[in-house]
Amino acid sequence: MHGDENGTLLAAQTQLRSLALQLTRTEACERRRLATRVHDEIGPALATARINLGLALQHDLPREVGALLRQTDDLILQAIRETRGIVSEMSPSVLYELGLRRAVEWAAERIGQQCGLSISTSFDGAEEDLEAEVQAALFHACRELLVNAGKHSRAAAVRLSLVIKDSLLSLEVEDDGVGLDLAGARERILQGDHFGIFSIRERFESLGGALDIDSVPGRGTRVRVTYPLRLTKQEARS
């Protein structure tokens, strides 16, 4: 009797994880579709607006009008930069062009420069064993955890390691910052602080993985994401 119940539970868990993987695939496709629309439609419109403003500024205009047009041009330029950032976040072309390892290294270098962090990265294993959807989820997780460390930890150094071994993926991001009060972390997450960690946990738990946080106030934080690869491959073939 217990064997039947265990078998039914395992089948249900497998089905839920399969559905979660399908949802991840659908979300990745939708991200790419929306990113393409923003890039192909909004980007050119903003660029054309800047060209038109540039032509207008070549004329002899009242000082107030010229100042207003130049301010508008600055706002459009800012919008173009923000649009490029949104496109990169929604569908990071660097991931598809360079692969997971080099994309993470690229993101770590950029985030390190923006946040004033020394970020080291290490990789062990073949990223080719990972499905495209899992690579995208990992890339977003790496970037989110690094940005989170830069914003909240007050760290000077961050270490990121990704290991793919024995059908298990393990991602660790460790910083030397101020640490977390884990007892109060859940309340802060629900209030919006550290929401990135919460969303990563939800995503990987739905796929059969897990996220653990090890932190002591004043002694830094380590976030570890684990993901069973063997199960995913079996589900992909089913």
What's the mean pLDDT score?
79
Task: Give the helix/strand class.
Answer: alpha+beta
End-to-end Cα distance, whole Å, is 26 Å
What's the helical proportion of residues? 55-70%
Radius of gyration: 22 Å
> Which H/E pattern describes the elements?
HHHHEHEEHHEEH
Helix tally? Answer: 8
Percent of sequence in beta strands = 15-25%
CATH 4th-level superfamily of the largest domain: Histidine kinase-like ATPase, C-terminal domain
User: What's the CATH class label of the largest domain?
Assistant: Alpha Beta
Low-confidence stretches: 231-238
Write down the domain tally.
2
Secondary structure: number of strands: 5
| CATH-derived architecture of the largest domain | 2-Layer Sandwich
* Strand order in space, largest sheet: 1-2-3-5-4
Question: What features would you describe in this structure?
Answer:
The protein has 238 residues and is an alpha+beta fold. The chain has helices spanning 2-57, 63-90, 93-98, 100-115, 132-153, 182-190, 195-206, 229-237; strands spanning 118-124, 157-165, 168-175, 210-215, 221-228. It has 2 domains: 2-90; 98-237, 2-Layer Sandwich (Heat Shock Protein 90). 66% of the residues lie in helices and 16% in strands. The chain has a 5-stranded mixed beta sheet with strand order 1-2-3-5-4. It starts with a helix and ends with a helix.
Key descriptive features of the protein:
238 residues; alpha+beta; 2 domains; 5-stranded mixed beta sheet; 8 helices; globular
